[in-house]
Amino acid sequence: MTHKVIVFDLDDTLYAKSDPFLETVKQYTEKSYDAYQLYTDFLKYSEHYFNEYTSNVITLEQSYIKRMQKTLQTIDIHLSDSEALIFNTKYQLAQKAIGLKESFKDLLEFYSQQGIELAILTNGPTHTQIKKCECLKLEQFIPRKNWFVSDQIGYKKPDPRVFEYVCQQMNTQPNQMIMIGDTIQSDVAGAMLSGWHYIWTRPHSLKHNTSNPHVVYSISTLKNRLDDFINS
C-alpha cells in the first residue's frame, strides 16, 4: 500500500550549517572577510574532497584536512596538516551546539502528530551526519530507521539510486515522495531524476520568484505546499 512520505535534507535545511563553521573561524582571525563567500568556498571544497573520499582517492581524514586548508587560504590563513585537523576538531565540537530551526521544529512536530511519515536523506560521512541528527534531537519526530545517509547507502544525492533505495525502504512509490532541500544540484536534481516531488527551500535568497510553486522562501509557504502534496 502506498503512502505519502516527506523527506528532509539535513545541512542548511533543518539547521544553519554555517554557524558552527564561522564561529570556529573567529578563533583564527580578527580580520574582516566576506562570511558568505567564505562559507560558499567551504561548501565547494567540502563537496570536492568528499567526492574524492567516496571515490577512494583520499581518506576521510585527508578530506577534512584539504577542505579546511583550501577554504582558509582564501582569507590568508595557512594551516599545516596537523593544524587543519585541529581546526576540524574544533568545528566538529561547535557542531554539537547546533539546534533545530524553531520553525522547522514546529513543522516536524505538526506532521509527526498527524501520522505523516517523515525521513532524512543527507550526503556525508555516516558517523558525522548521525551525530548531527542526535544533536538536533530528531528522533522525537523521525525514527532512526528513517535517517538515511549517503555514505551508508553507497550512493549520494543526486544519484537516482539513493532515492530509489529510500523509496524502497519507505515501502512506497516515487510519486508519493517529496524532497525538501536547499541545494538544487543534489536535492532538487536528484528528486526530479527519480520521479519525486520536490521543494527547494531558499529562505536567505534575495531573488524571490513566487510564481514557481517548487521554490519557497518561508516556513508558512512550505507548509502550504506540503499540505497540497499530502491532500493531492
What topology does this entry show?
Elements: E1 5-8, H1 18-25, H2 35-54, H3 60-73, H4 81-95, H5 102-113, E2 117-122, H6 126-135, E3 147-149, H7 150-153, H8 160-169, E4 177-181, H9 184-194, E5 197-201, E6 215-216, H10 219-231
Parallel strand pairs: 1-2, 1-4, 2-3, 4-5, 5-6
Helix pairs in contact: 1-4, 2-3, 3-4, 8-9
Question: Could you explain the architecture of this structure?
Answer:
The structure is a single chain. This protein is α/β, with parallel strands linked by helices and 232 residues long. It folds into 2 domains: 5-16 and 99-231, Rossmann fold; 18-95, DNA polymerase, domain 1, CATH 1.10.150.240. Helix content is 50%, strand content 11%. The chain has 10 helices and 6 strands; from the N terminus they run E-H-H-H-H-H-E-H-E-H-H-E-H-E-E-H. The chain has helices spanning 18-25, 35-54, 60-73, 81-95, 102-113, 126-135, 150-153, 160-169, 184-194, 219-231; strands spanning 5-8, 117-122, 147-149, 177-181, 197-201, 215-216. A 6-stranded parallel sheet has the order 3-2-1-4-5-6, with helices on both faces. Helix 1 crosses helix 4 and helix 3 (60-73) packs across helix 4 (81-95). The radius of gyration is 18 Å and the shape is globular. The model has no long low-confidence stretch (mean pLDDT 93).
